[in-house]
Amino acid sequence: MASKPQLAGSAWRPLFTPSATGCYVNDHSVIRTQDGRWHVIGITKMTAEMNADQERYFCHGSGAALATGTFTEHWKVCDFGHRAWAPAVVYDGRRYVMLYGPGLLRAAICVDDSLDHWLEVPCTVSGCPPTGNLRDQMVVRLDDDTWLMYATALHQGRSAISVFVSEDLFHWRFVRTAWRTTPRVTRQAPWSAAESPFVFHHAGQYCLSVTYATSVDGADDYHNTLLFRSTNPFDFGTYSGDPKEVFATLPLHAPEYVCDPASGQWYVTSCGWPGDTFRPVIPGSVAITELSWVDAESRPPPDTLRPTT
Q1: pLDDT digits 0-9 by tens, 119-169
Q2: How many beta carbons lie within 10 A of that of residue 250, not counting itself?
Q3: Distance set, CA 273 to CA 4, 18, 25, 27, 211 (Å)
Q4: Which domains does the chain have, with CATH numbers?
Q5: Which run of H or of E encompasses 150?
């Protein structure tokens, strides 16, 4: 039987809480820089009301370890005068590259481990769906020559996740719809309910995590993350609303899954808009806790496909 991820039972703790540059963190990226330090870069703004059009830069924090303490706040990054949502940060062997949206895919680069100074650079997307549909990008390395990008999309008017391929992180080609919902799913949303895709590798298979948020009516809907498995990172099948189609369900919003290479311990984060409607795990913060694997005989080693190195 395949091992399944579950919250380990440890208390949630704040990993990063901005104060000078924002009052909350929503979709974010967790990355370990080459000097061994961990960083969080995420969506924010200075006021708590829900207005995503005002989210126009990212907050940034860093710390020495995931297991203890909270991260120190840096100054805001990627303040380039347009909307800034859902950063995806990776290291290509020479520099750090950030991809983000929404709408047009945007890119920025940083050449040092501080991740404080970013230069906006051009990038392109070819194929279908059009670039205007891109949202909540997430990037992983498939092999030495190939990167994959997953993004929230619509397929025939229904919630879906698209997958793109690139050899350099700046020129992307649409490959296919990697996961889609069927007409049997009663809960749909015109903006695509399939939010915050995240793909990682565990026990010989790929896992796709999707926060399936169909409304803004309450925390039960907002904190609803579904996981799907596949041996093929380009195809995670379809979802008709049947719980049997779901590999695992976790009460999280826009999580990141991270395996610490120093200890082999898995962690998961959760975040979100503030307020009584959404009720994030720890208001204003990226929260973190340990992740365990049910039926695993031993602690899994660090995997090669993860956006943390």
Answers
A1: 999 999 998 765 556 899 999 999 999 999 999 988 888 889 999 999 999
A2: 21
A3: 28, 13, 7, 9, 14
A4: 4-294 (2.115.10.20)
A5: strand 146-155
Radius of gyration in angstroms for the set of CA atoms belonging to the chain, rounded to a whole number: 18
User: Would you say 116 and 62 are in contact if contact means Cβ atoms under 8 Å apart?
Assistant: no
Residue that the structure tokens 């698209």 belong to:
162
**274 vs 283: CA distance, rounded Å:** 6
CA distances from 51 to 100, 274, 275 (A): 18, 12, 13
The pTM for the full model equals: 0.93
In degrees and rounded to multiples of 5, residue 199 shows phi and psi of -115, 135
Token pair 């390395």 is found at 141
Annotate 55-75 with b (16+ C-beta within 10 A) or e (fewer).
Answer: bbbbbbbbbeebeeeebebbe
3-state secondary structure of 94: coil
Q: Which residue has the higher pLDDT, 145 or 307?
A: 145
